[in-house]
């Protein structure tokens, strides 16, 4: 049986671990809420931009479109894989990489360009000798649009110059603080429905920032045609790429929020396990201590009886 000293050391170690994991749980919860706030700040702009684009496409004379909406024969694809820079977040990174490997296996008939965000994805594919076209790391906990802009520019420019004809993203979709799912979503060519889903998805399903907790955006009713200056094409040439940038930015923010949420849950589980260990070690400590006391009492009684016999 372990000594009292070693058991006390184990109790102290478990207590120190519980303090660390509890602190990480609180920090992750705070970062998760901040990530949601960052995403929500962009929603009014996204709603206004989407409404403007929709009205330009439907309420101006003639056929107006943008190259990022055009579908073409697919000769080469691009895959955007978004993971975290850090670990200790449960199976979130593993699930993303499994989903990406499944995509690669299913689309092996055509060449593809691999674009990764996050150190975990970069290290994973480097270890396996998979060629990485572009790698982005170090966006931080609260990424701004300026920070994520290089990712969006890489995807948009590659689509426009014909480097790839289709772009899909593998990332973690934040649904609730306890539920995140690995998903594969198309990015380019863009569609009005896809951009609408992005704007709608900025608000989580439940929690403080859920749709029910926010005022609804009023629907505008127009009974007139737009007159656009300098031209609808020039307005769309600025507006559509910006919506794609917002799409990429939101995807990265969702991955950040999912990472912090998964780490919060993992650290809570670790804290609970540490408390259980403390309880078990304390019980064992009391048993060993009581056994020692009983043994000493038995020895004293035996000695007293021996003295009486003498």
Structure description:
It is built from 7 helices and 5 strands, in the order ααβαβαβαββαα. Mean pLDDT is 81; it is low at 212-219. It has helices at 4-41, 43-59, 92-106, 119-127, 145-160, 192-201, 232-309, and strands spanning 77-82, 112-117, 134-136, 166-176, 179-188. Strands 3-2-1-4-5 form a 5-stranded mixed sheet, sandwiched between helices. The relative contact order is 0.19. It has 310 residues and is of the alpha/beta class. Helix 2 (43-59) runs antiparallel to helix 7 (232-309) and helix 5 packs across helix 7. The protein is elongated and about 120 Å long.
What is the topological layout?
Layout: H1 4-41, H2 43-59, E1 77-82, H3 92-106, E2 112-117, H4 119-127, E3 134-136, H5 145-160, E4 166-176, E5 179-188, H6 192-201, H7 232-309
Parallel strand pairs: 1-2, 1-4, 2-3
Antiparallel strand pairs: 4-5
Helix pairs in contact: 1-7, 2-6, 2-7, 5-7
């Amino acid at each position: 049986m372990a000594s009292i000293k070693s058991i006390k050391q184990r109790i102290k170690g478990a207590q120190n671990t519980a303090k660390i994991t509890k602190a990480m749980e609180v920090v992750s919860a705070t970062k998760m809420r901040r990530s949601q706030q960052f995403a929500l700040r962009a929603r009014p702009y996204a709603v206004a931009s989407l409404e403007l684009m929709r009205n330009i496409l439907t309420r101006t004379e003639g056929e107006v479109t943008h190259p990022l909406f055009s579908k073409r024969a697919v000769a080469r694809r691009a895959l955007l894989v978004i993971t975290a820079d850090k670990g200790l977040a449960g199976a979130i990174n593993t699930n993303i990489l499994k989903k990406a490997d499944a995509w690669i296996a299913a689309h092996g008939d055509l060449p593809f360009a691999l674009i990764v965000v996050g150190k975990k994805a970069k290290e994973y594919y480097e270890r396996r000798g998979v060629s990485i076209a572009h790698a982005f790391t170090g966006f931080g906990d609260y990424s701004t649009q300026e920070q994520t802009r290089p990712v969006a520019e890489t995807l948009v420019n590659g689509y426009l110059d014909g480097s790839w004809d289709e772009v899909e993203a593998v990332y973690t979709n934040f649904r609730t603080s306890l539920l995140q799912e690995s998903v594969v979503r198309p990015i380019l060519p863009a569609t009005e429905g896809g951009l609408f889903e992005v704007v709608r998805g900025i608000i989580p399903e439940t929690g403080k920032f859920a749709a029910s907790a926010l005022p609804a955006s009023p629907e505008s009713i127009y009974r007139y045609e737009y007159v656009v200056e300098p031209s609808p094409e020039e307005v769309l040439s600025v507006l559509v790429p910006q919506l794609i940038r917002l799409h990429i930015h939101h995807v990265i923010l969702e991955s950040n929020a999912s990472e912090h949420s998964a780490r919060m849950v993992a650290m809570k589980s670790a804290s609970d396990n540490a408390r259980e260990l403390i309880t078990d070690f304390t019980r064992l400590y009391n048993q060993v201590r009581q056994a020692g006391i009983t043994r000493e009492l038995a020895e004293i009684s035996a000695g007293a009886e021996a003295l009486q016999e003498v």
